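ok new one. same drill as before - structure tokens go in, u give me an amino acid for every spot. 197 of them this time. try not to just spam alanines like last time pls lmao
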């Protein structure tokens, strides 16, 4: 039995390493193309499924903490009926940045696995650190996710408060500040900021 198995494995191993001996180059090209399309479609489908709100709030850490906070903000319910979902603010829209963010977010799975934020108390203890990472990320990309919806060119300064006009028309226009510099806590409660500049 063992020699037969060895012979079988050796024969198919040879086929894998010398496929042109059995199949034409055209056939192999077509098979590779079809496999590539299937892989790409599956990968993209999984990526988009991981950007849905049900996926994001699938764990109680997000559902009971930050999602519950979002529900009380204008980003969740407003007069226009346009709602920001988790991925709108936390995942870049263009593909390469989205992949980089997903790889970065895979580290966050450790928090789920090891229960780092499994209780409201643990979440509160980690909140400043988690928020700081997100603010740094948004500052580094010039609040790209904010700008996907809130475009500077479309701002109507006549409908803003004097303070907002001053900030938007000077600091934001000159690139000295970005959205997250002034709008921390816009969709989620701020962490305990005592001792932070």
């Amino acid at each position: 039995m063992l020699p037969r198995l060895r012979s079988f494995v050796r024969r198919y191993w040879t086929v894998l390493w010398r496929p042109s001996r059995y199949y034409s180059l055209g056939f192999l090209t077509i098979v590779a193309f079809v496999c590539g399309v299937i892989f790409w479609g599956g990968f993209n489908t999984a990526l988009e499924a991981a950007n849905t709100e049900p996926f994001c709030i699938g764990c109680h850490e997000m559902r009971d903490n930050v999602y519950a906070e979002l529900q009380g903000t204008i980003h969740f319910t407003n007069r226009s009926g346009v709602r920001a979902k988790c991925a709108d603010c936390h995942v870049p829209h263009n593909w390469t940045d989205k992949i980089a963010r997903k790889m970065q977010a895979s580290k966050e799975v450790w928090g789920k696995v090891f229960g780092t934020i499994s209780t409201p108390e643990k979440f509160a203890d980690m909140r400043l650190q988690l928020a700081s990472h997100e603010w740094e990320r948004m500052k580094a990309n010039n609040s790209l996710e904010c700008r996907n919806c809130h475009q500077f060119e479309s701002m109507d300064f006549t409908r803003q408060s004097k303070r907002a006009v001053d900030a938007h028309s000077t600091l934001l226009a000159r690139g000295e500040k970005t959205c997250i510099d002034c709008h921390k806590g816009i969709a989620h409660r701020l962490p305990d900021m005592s001792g932070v500049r």
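The mean pLDDT is 85. and btw The chain has two domains: 1-49, 60-197.
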